[in-house]
Design brief:
Aspartate Aminotransferase, domain 1; 17 helices; Aspartate Aminotransferase, domain 2; seven-stranded mixed sheet; binds pyridoxal-5'-phosphate
Length: 423
Amino acid sequence: MKINTKCIQSGYQPKNGEARILPIWQSTTFKYDSSTEMGMLFDLEKSGYFYSRLQNPTCDAVAAKICDLEGGIAAMLTSSGQAANFIALFNICPTGSHIVASSAIYGGTFNLLGVTMKKMGIDVTFVDPDADEKTLEKAFRPETRAVFAESIANPALTVLDFDKFVRLAHSHGVPLVVDNTFPTPINCRPFEFGVDIVTHSTTKYMDGHAMTVGGVIVDSGNFDFVAHADKYPGLCTPDDSYHGITYTEKFGKLAFIQKATAQMMRDLGSIQSPQNAFLLNIGLETLALRMQRHCENAKKVAEFLSAHPKVNWVNYPGIPDSPYYEIAQKYMPNGTCGVVSFGVQGGREAATLFMDSLRLAAIVTHVADARTCILHPASTTHRQLTDEQLNECKTPADLLRLSVGIEDADDIIADLSQALEFL
Ligand SMILES: *Cc1c(COP(=O)(O)O)cnc(C)c1O
Protein backbone atom coordinates (compact mmCIF):
# COMPACT_ATOMS: atom_id res chain seq x y z
CA MET A 1 0.00 0.00 0.00
CA LYS A 2 1.11 3.56 -0.68
CA ILE A 3 1.43 5.86 2.32
CA ASN A 4 -1.82 7.75 1.57
CA THR A 5 -3.67 4.42 1.65
CA LYS A 6 -1.93 3.31 4.85
CA CYS A 7 -3.23 6.45 6.61
CA ILE A 8 -6.74 5.11 6.06
CA GLN A 9 -6.38 1.34 5.97
CA SER A 10 -3.52 0.33 8.29
CA GLY A 11 -3.86 -0.69 11.92
CA TYR A 12 -7.44 -1.83 12.44
CA GLN A 13 -8.82 -4.49 10.13
CA PRO A 14 -12.27 -5.67 11.23
CA LYS A 15 -13.17 -9.32 10.79
CA ASN A 16 -16.51 -10.50 9.45
CA GLY A 17 -19.37 -8.77 11.27
CA GLU A 18 -17.16 -6.53 13.42
CA ALA A 19 -17.38 -2.74 13.76
CA ARG A 20 -16.15 -0.97 10.63
CA ILE A 21 -14.62 1.84 12.69
CA LEU A 22 -11.95 1.23 15.32
CA PRO A 23 -13.82 0.69 18.60
CA ILE A 24 -12.77 2.43 21.80
CA TRP A 25 -11.97 -0.38 24.21
CA GLN A 26 -12.90 1.71 27.23
CA SER A 27 -11.88 -0.92 29.74
CA THR A 28 -9.12 -0.97 32.31
CA THR A 29 -9.06 -4.72 32.41
CA PHE A 30 -9.77 -7.94 30.47
CA LYS A 31 -11.45 -11.14 31.64
CA TYR A 32 -10.00 -14.68 31.62
CA ASP A 33 -11.54 -18.06 32.35
CA SER A 34 -8.63 -19.40 34.35
CA SER A 35 -6.01 -17.96 36.66
CA THR A 36 -3.40 -20.16 34.96
CA GLU A 37 -4.02 -18.37 31.67
CA MET A 38 -3.75 -14.96 33.27
CA GLY A 39 -0.59 -16.04 35.06
CA MET A 40 0.98 -16.87 31.71
CA LEU A 41 0.26 -13.34 30.52
CA PHE A 42 2.00 -11.92 33.58
CA ASP A 43 5.02 -14.13 32.87
CA LEU A 44 5.08 -12.93 29.22
CA GLU A 45 4.62 -16.61 28.27
CA LYS A 46 1.51 -15.71 26.31
CA SER A 47 0.50 -12.49 24.62
CA GLY A 48 -2.84 -10.93 25.41
CA TYR A 49 -4.50 -8.04 27.17
CA PHE A 50 -4.94 -7.95 30.91
CA TYR A 51 -4.54 -4.35 32.06
CA SER A 52 -4.68 -1.15 30.00
CA ARG A 53 -1.59 0.33 31.66
CA LEU A 54 0.40 -2.19 29.63
CA GLN A 55 -1.66 -2.70 26.50
CA ASN A 56 -5.07 -1.86 25.12
CA PRO A 57 -6.52 -2.98 21.75
CA THR A 58 -7.51 0.56 20.62
CA CYS A 59 -4.05 1.91 21.42
CA ASP A 60 -2.37 -1.09 19.80
CA ALA A 61 -4.32 -0.63 16.55
CA VAL A 62 -3.27 3.02 16.34
CA ALA A 63 0.34 2.14 17.21
CA ALA A 64 0.25 -0.47 14.44
CA LYS A 65 -0.90 2.15 11.92
CA ILE A 66 1.92 4.53 12.85
CA CYS A 67 4.36 1.60 12.79
CA ASP A 68 3.25 0.83 9.24
CA LEU A 69 3.55 4.48 8.19
CA GLU A 70 7.14 4.59 9.47
CA GLY A 71 8.01 1.14 8.10
CA GLY A 72 8.96 -0.20 11.54
CA ILE A 73 8.39 -3.59 13.16
CA ALA A 74 6.83 -2.59 16.50
CA ALA A 75 5.42 0.53 18.13
CA MET A 76 3.99 1.73 21.42
CA LEU A 77 1.77 4.74 22.16
CA THR A 78 2.62 6.96 25.11
CA SER A 79 0.78 9.69 27.01
CA SER A 80 2.83 12.48 25.40
CA GLY A 81 5.81 13.21 23.20
CA GLN A 82 7.83 13.86 26.34
CA ALA A 83 6.99 10.37 27.61
CA ALA A 84 7.92 8.87 24.23
CA ASN A 85 11.38 10.45 24.24
CA PHE A 86 11.99 9.66 27.89
CA ILE A 87 10.94 6.01 27.61
CA ALA A 88 12.74 5.47 24.29
CA LEU A 89 15.99 6.68 25.87
CA PHE A 90 15.59 5.35 29.41
CA ASN A 91 14.84 1.90 27.95
CA ILE A 92 18.51 1.66 26.91
CA CYS A 93 20.25 4.41 28.92
CA PRO A 94 20.37 3.58 32.63
CA THR A 95 21.96 5.63 35.41
CA GLY A 96 25.66 6.03 34.69
CA SER A 97 25.22 6.07 30.93
CA HIS A 98 25.65 8.93 28.49
CA ILE A 99 23.71 10.32 25.54
CA VAL A 100 24.95 12.40 22.61
CA ALA A 101 22.13 14.75 21.62
CA SER A 102 21.67 17.44 19.04
CA SER A 103 21.40 20.87 20.67
CA ALA A 104 18.79 21.90 18.08
CA ILE A 105 15.83 20.17 19.70
CA TYR A 106 12.47 20.98 21.26
CA GLY A 107 12.83 23.00 24.49
CA GLY A 108 11.00 20.37 26.53
CA THR A 109 13.36 17.65 25.36
CA PHE A 110 16.35 19.92 26.01
CA ASN A 111 15.20 20.22 29.65
CA LEU A 112 14.35 16.52 29.91
CA LEU A 113 17.87 15.55 28.85
CA GLY A 114 19.86 18.42 30.30
CA VAL A 115 18.15 18.75 33.67
CA THR A 116 15.86 15.88 34.67
CA MET A 117 17.75 12.94 33.19
CA LYS A 118 20.99 14.47 34.40
CA LYS A 119 19.54 14.37 37.94
CA MET A 120 18.87 10.67 37.37
CA GLY A 121 22.57 10.21 36.68
CA ILE A 122 22.31 10.04 32.90
CA ASP A 123 24.75 12.46 31.36
CA VAL A 124 24.23 14.22 28.04
CA THR A 125 26.54 16.05 25.67
CA PHE A 126 24.75 18.49 23.38
CA VAL A 127 26.32 18.88 19.96
CA ASP A 128 25.76 21.27 17.08
CA PRO A 129 24.09 18.98 14.50
CA ASP A 130 25.78 20.93 11.69
CA ALA A 131 29.29 20.36 13.07
CA ASP A 132 31.66 18.18 11.06
CA GLU A 133 32.15 14.52 11.88
CA LYS A 134 35.55 15.00 13.53
CA THR A 135 34.09 17.50 16.01
CA LEU A 136 31.05 15.32 16.67
CA GLU A 137 33.26 12.27 17.34
CA LYS A 138 34.68 14.04 20.41
CA ALA A 139 31.32 13.93 22.17
CA PHE A 140 31.34 10.12 22.45
CA ARG A 141 32.42 8.31 25.60
CA PRO A 142 32.81 4.63 26.49
CA GLU A 143 29.49 4.85 28.37
CA THR A 144 27.55 6.45 25.48
CA ARG A 145 24.41 4.40 24.83
CA ALA A 146 22.37 6.44 22.32
CA VAL A 147 22.45 9.37 19.91
CA PHE A 148 19.37 11.61 19.81
CA ALA A 149 18.26 14.24 17.28
CA GLU A 150 15.19 15.66 15.52
CA SER A 151 14.66 15.14 11.79
CA ILE A 152 13.47 18.75 11.49
CA ALA A 153 14.16 20.57 14.72
CA ASN A 154 11.39 22.41 16.57
CA PRO A 155 11.67 25.40 16.39
CA ALA A 156 15.16 25.78 14.86
CA LEU A 157 14.06 24.05 11.60
CA THR A 158 17.49 22.54 11.06
CA VAL A 159 17.29 19.41 8.91
CA LEU A 160 19.28 16.43 10.14
CA ASP A 161 22.06 14.99 8.00
CA PHE A 162 20.91 11.41 8.48
CA ASP A 163 23.93 9.82 6.74
CA LYS A 164 26.34 11.65 9.04
CA PHE A 165 24.46 10.84 12.23
CA VAL A 166 23.84 7.20 11.30
CA ARG A 167 27.58 6.74 10.58
CA LEU A 168 28.52 8.38 13.88
CA ALA A 169 26.11 6.38 16.00
CA HIS A 170 26.83 3.03 14.36
CA SER A 171 30.61 3.45 14.36
CA HIS A 172 30.29 3.77 18.15
CA GLY A 173 27.98 0.77 18.41
CA VAL A 174 24.90 2.69 19.59
CA PRO A 175 21.47 3.31 18.04
CA LEU A 176 20.31 6.61 16.55
CA VAL A 177 16.99 7.77 17.99
CA VAL A 178 15.20 10.42 15.91
CA ASP A 179 12.19 12.52 16.86
CA ASN A 180 10.30 12.72 13.55
CA THR A 181 7.41 14.91 14.75
CA PHE A 182 7.76 17.76 12.22
CA PRO A 183 8.01 16.07 8.81
CA THR A 184 5.86 13.08 9.88
CA PRO A 185 6.27 9.78 8.01
CA ILE A 186 4.36 11.35 5.11
CA ASN A 187 7.38 13.50 4.24
CA CYS A 188 10.26 11.60 5.84
CA ARG A 189 10.78 8.00 6.93
CA PRO A 190 14.04 7.96 8.91
CA PHE A 191 14.32 4.14 8.89
CA GLU A 192 14.96 4.34 5.12
CA PHE A 193 18.17 6.21 5.93
CA GLY A 194 19.41 3.86 8.66
CA VAL A 195 17.87 5.43 11.77
CA ASP A 196 17.11 2.78 14.41
CA ILE A 197 14.31 4.18 16.58
CA VAL A 198 11.78 6.91 15.82
CA THR A 199 9.69 8.91 18.28
CA HIS A 200 6.86 11.40 17.78
CA SER A 201 4.81 13.87 19.66
CA THR A 202 1.49 12.76 18.12
CA THR A 203 0.08 15.96 19.65
CA LYS A 204 1.24 17.78 16.52
CA TYR A 205 0.48 16.91 12.87
CA MET A 206 -0.55 13.32 13.57
CA ASP A 207 -3.49 14.41 15.70
CA GLY A 208 -3.54 17.55 13.62
CA HIS A 209 -6.47 19.29 15.30
CA ALA A 210 -4.98 20.23 18.69
CA MET A 211 -7.29 17.79 20.46
CA THR A 212 -5.09 15.29 22.27
CA VAL A 213 -1.63 15.15 23.80
CA GLY A 214 0.17 11.93 22.89
CA GLY A 215 3.33 10.25 21.72
CA VAL A 216 4.64 7.13 20.04
CA ILE A 217 7.85 5.11 19.89
CA VAL A 218 8.55 3.05 16.75
CA ASP A 219 11.39 0.53 16.43
CA SER A 220 12.92 -0.43 13.08
CA GLY A 221 14.13 -3.71 14.59
CA ASN A 222 17.43 -3.10 12.79
CA PHE A 223 19.80 -2.26 15.62
CA ASP A 224 21.69 -5.37 16.71
CA PHE A 225 21.63 -5.02 20.51
CA VAL A 226 23.01 -8.57 20.91
CA ALA A 227 26.15 -7.64 18.94
CA HIS A 228 26.71 -4.95 21.62
CA ALA A 229 25.37 -7.01 24.52
CA ASP A 230 27.92 -5.61 26.99
CA LYS A 231 26.40 -2.16 26.47
CA TYR A 232 22.77 -3.22 26.82
CA PRO A 233 22.47 -5.57 29.79
CA GLY A 234 18.86 -4.41 30.26
CA LEU A 235 17.94 -6.07 26.96
CA CYS A 236 20.53 -8.85 26.80
CA THR A 237 20.64 -10.24 30.36
CA PRO A 238 17.82 -11.68 32.51
CA ASP A 239 15.18 -9.28 33.91
CA ASP A 240 14.60 -10.13 37.58
CA SER A 241 11.19 -8.48 37.48
CA TYR A 242 10.09 -11.15 34.96
CA HIS A 243 11.58 -14.28 36.54
CA GLY A 244 14.74 -13.98 34.54
CA ILE A 245 13.44 -13.42 30.99
CA THR A 246 16.06 -12.09 28.57
CA TYR A 247 14.24 -9.80 26.14
CA THR A 248 16.55 -10.31 23.16
CA GLU A 249 16.42 -14.12 23.55
CA LYS A 250 12.68 -14.32 24.03
CA PHE A 251 11.52 -11.63 21.58
CA GLY A 252 14.35 -11.26 19.06
CA LYS A 253 13.87 -8.12 16.97
CA LEU A 254 10.85 -7.12 19.05
CA ALA A 255 12.95 -6.88 22.23
CA PHE A 256 13.17 -3.07 22.40
CA ILE A 257 9.41 -2.41 22.29
CA GLN A 258 8.67 -5.49 24.44
CA LYS A 259 10.93 -4.18 27.19
CA ALA A 260 9.53 -0.65 26.80
CA THR A 261 6.01 -2.05 27.26
CA ALA A 262 6.52 -4.83 29.79
CA GLN A 263 8.98 -2.98 32.01
CA MET A 264 8.97 0.79 31.36
CA MET A 265 5.23 1.19 30.83
CA ARG A 266 4.41 -1.25 33.61
CA ASP A 267 6.53 0.76 36.05
CA LEU A 268 6.15 4.34 34.78
CA GLY A 269 2.58 4.13 33.52
CA SER A 270 2.59 6.93 30.95
CA ILE A 271 -0.07 5.37 28.76
CA GLN A 272 -2.23 7.00 26.12
CA SER A 273 -5.92 6.63 26.88
CA PRO A 274 -8.06 4.62 24.42
CA GLN A 275 -10.25 7.73 23.91
CA ASN A 276 -7.25 9.78 22.88
CA ALA A 277 -5.95 7.00 20.64
CA PHE A 278 -9.35 6.94 18.90
CA LEU A 279 -9.15 10.70 18.24
CA LEU A 280 -5.54 10.37 17.11
CA ASN A 281 -6.63 7.72 14.63
CA ILE A 282 -9.15 10.11 13.05
CA GLY A 283 -6.34 12.63 12.67
CA LEU A 284 -4.08 10.03 11.08
CA GLU A 285 -6.69 9.27 8.42
CA THR A 286 -6.21 12.73 6.87
CA LEU A 287 -2.49 13.12 7.66
CA ALA A 288 -1.31 12.76 4.06
CA LEU A 289 -3.88 15.27 2.77
CA ARG A 290 -3.14 17.78 5.49
CA MET A 291 0.65 17.57 5.22
CA GLN A 292 0.47 18.38 1.53
CA ARG A 293 -1.60 21.51 2.20
CA HIS A 294 0.51 22.55 5.21
CA CYS A 295 3.62 22.41 3.04
CA GLU A 296 2.08 24.24 0.06
CA ASN A 297 0.82 27.03 2.32
CA ALA A 298 4.07 27.30 4.28
CA LYS A 299 6.06 27.65 1.07
CA LYS A 300 3.82 30.51 -0.10
CA VAL A 301 4.06 32.20 3.31
CA ALA A 302 7.86 31.80 3.41
CA GLU A 303 8.13 33.35 -0.07
CA PHE A 304 5.90 36.26 0.98
CA LEU A 305 7.90 36.90 4.17
CA SER A 306 11.24 36.64 2.35
CA ALA A 307 10.20 39.43 -0.01
CA HIS A 308 8.85 41.71 2.75
CA PRO A 309 11.02 44.74 3.69
CA LYS A 310 10.08 44.56 7.41
CA VAL A 311 11.20 40.95 7.75
CA ASN A 312 14.86 40.52 8.67
CA TRP A 313 15.27 36.85 8.01
CA VAL A 314 13.19 33.77 7.15
CA ASN A 315 14.00 30.14 7.77
CA TYR A 316 11.96 27.51 5.95
CA PRO A 317 13.76 24.40 4.70
CA GLY A 318 11.37 24.19 1.74
CA ILE A 319 12.69 27.30 -0.07
CA PRO A 320 16.05 27.59 -1.89
CA ASP A 321 17.18 30.48 0.38
CA SER A 322 17.38 28.12 3.33
CA PRO A 323 20.78 26.66 4.23
CA TYR A 324 18.91 23.37 4.74
CA TYR A 325 17.18 23.36 1.34
CA GLU A 326 19.54 20.88 -0.30
CA ILE A 327 19.61 18.45 2.58
CA ALA A 328 15.81 18.66 2.79
CA GLN A 329 15.59 17.87 -0.94
CA LYS A 330 17.71 14.80 -0.32
CA TYR A 331 15.77 13.33 2.61
CA MET A 332 12.28 14.81 2.18
CA PRO A 333 11.82 15.78 -1.48
CA ASN A 334 8.01 15.86 -1.26
CA GLY A 335 7.90 18.49 1.47
CA THR A 336 9.20 19.37 4.91
CA CYS A 337 6.65 20.76 7.37
CA GLY A 338 4.25 23.67 7.82
CA VAL A 339 6.38 25.61 10.28
CA VAL A 340 8.21 28.76 9.22
CA SER A 341 10.44 30.79 11.51
CA PHE A 342 11.41 34.41 10.98
CA GLY A 343 12.54 37.60 12.66
CA VAL A 344 10.97 41.02 12.16
CA GLN A 345 12.74 44.36 12.22
CA GLY A 346 12.90 45.78 15.73
CA GLY A 347 13.74 42.62 17.68
CA ARG A 348 11.86 41.38 20.73
CA GLU A 349 9.45 44.34 21.16
CA ALA A 350 8.49 44.46 17.49
CA ALA A 351 7.88 40.71 17.61
CA THR A 352 5.35 41.20 20.41
CA LEU A 353 3.60 44.10 18.63
CA PHE A 354 3.44 42.06 15.43
CA MET A 355 1.94 39.05 17.21
CA ASP A 356 -0.65 41.16 19.02
CA SER A 357 -1.73 42.66 15.68
CA LEU A 358 -2.56 39.33 14.06
CA ARG A 359 -6.25 38.50 13.60
CA LEU A 360 -6.38 35.07 11.99
CA ALA A 361 -3.18 33.58 13.39
CA ALA A 362 -3.71 32.83 17.09
CA ILE A 363 -1.14 33.12 19.86
CA VAL A 364 -1.05 29.64 21.36
CA THR A 365 1.51 27.30 22.87
CA HIS A 366 1.07 24.85 20.08
CA VAL A 367 2.39 24.04 16.69
CA ALA A 368 1.52 21.83 13.76
CA ASP A 369 -2.27 21.74 13.75
CA ALA A 370 -4.92 22.73 11.22
CA ARG A 371 -5.20 26.34 12.45
CA THR A 372 -2.49 28.91 11.81
CA CYS A 373 -0.81 29.88 15.05
CA ILE A 374 2.25 31.74 16.23
CA LEU A 375 4.58 31.66 19.21
CA HIS A 376 7.60 33.57 20.48
CA PRO A 377 9.75 30.76 21.97
CA ALA A 378 12.14 33.04 23.88
CA SER A 379 9.30 34.36 26.05
CA THR A 380 7.33 31.09 26.33
CA THR A 381 8.48 27.52 25.60
CA HIS A 382 12.17 28.45 25.86
CA ARG A 383 11.72 30.91 28.72
CA GLN A 384 14.01 28.93 31.04
CA LEU A 385 16.92 29.19 28.63
CA THR A 386 19.55 31.93 28.70
CA ASP A 387 20.33 33.96 25.54
CA GLU A 388 23.47 31.88 25.15
CA GLN A 389 21.50 28.63 25.39
CA LEU A 390 18.94 30.06 22.95
CA ASN A 391 21.65 30.62 20.37
CA GLU A 392 23.14 27.21 21.15
CA CYS A 393 19.85 25.53 20.26
CA LYS A 394 19.48 27.77 17.20
CA THR A 395 16.47 29.63 18.57
CA PRO A 396 17.58 33.28 18.78
CA ALA A 397 15.66 35.68 21.02
CA ASP A 398 13.91 37.37 18.05
CA LEU A 399 12.67 34.11 16.47
CA LEU A 400 8.94 33.91 15.74
CA ARG A 401 7.59 30.43 15.08
CA LEU A 402 4.66 30.50 12.69
CA SER A 403 2.76 27.26 12.30
CA VAL A 404 1.03 27.60 8.95
CA GLY A 405 -2.39 25.95 8.97
CA ILE A 406 -4.55 24.54 6.21
CA GLU A 407 -6.72 27.63 5.69
CA ASP A 408 -6.53 29.38 2.31
CA ALA A 409 -2.97 30.69 1.85
CA ASP A 410 -4.28 34.06 0.63
CA ASP A 411 -6.05 34.67 3.94
CA ILE A 412 -2.99 33.71 5.99
CA ILE A 413 -0.79 36.03 3.95
CA ALA A 414 -3.31 38.90 4.16
CA ASP A 415 -3.25 38.58 7.96
CA LEU A 416 0.55 38.63 8.16
CA SER A 417 0.63 41.55 5.75
CA GLN A 418 -1.73 43.75 7.81
CA ALA A 419 0.13 42.97 11.05
CA LEU A 420 3.49 43.89 9.48
CA GLU A 421 2.03 47.33 8.70
CA PHE A 422 2.02 48.09 12.44
CA LEU A 423 5.82 47.90 12.60
C1 LIG B 1 5.89 19.01 21.11
C2 LIG B 1 7.11 18.24 20.88
C3 LIG B 1 7.57 17.31 21.81
C4 LIG B 1 6.87 17.08 23.13
O1 LIG B 1 5.64 16.49 22.89
P1 LIG B 1 4.38 16.62 23.89
O2 LIG B 1 3.35 15.81 23.18
O3 LIG B 1 4.04 18.06 24.01
O4 LIG B 1 4.80 16.02 25.19
C5 LIG B 1 8.69 16.58 21.52
N1 LIG B 1 9.35 16.76 20.36
C6 LIG B 1 8.93 17.65 19.44
C7 LIG B 1 9.71 17.80 18.19
C8 LIG B 1 7.81 18.42 19.66
O5 LIG B 1 7.41 19.31 18.74
